[in-house]
Structure prediction request, 100 residues.
Amino acid sequence: MTALKLAPVHPGEILREEFLSPLNLSAGAVARALGVPRTRIERLANEQVDLTPDTALRLARFFGTTAEFWMSLQSRYALETASDALSDALDKIEPMKRAG
Prediction:
């Protein structure tokens, strides 16, 4: 039986589902509070762009989290997406054998 693999979770999904929706916040309201263009938060929440360190720092300050929280979401998403895309090529790489 093959295990079902879930799609990578984009940081925008977390922003949307764990912060914006439950707190009844619009992307525009968050953008104003962060001092960034509304489209930056809209595009992130719609999973159209990656999270930048600049935005991670701003979100952390606003929501009382850490920039590391936000950047780890982005890093994990990027690694899982790349792993999926490179799956066949990675399977062809033989791990180095250690002496001893």
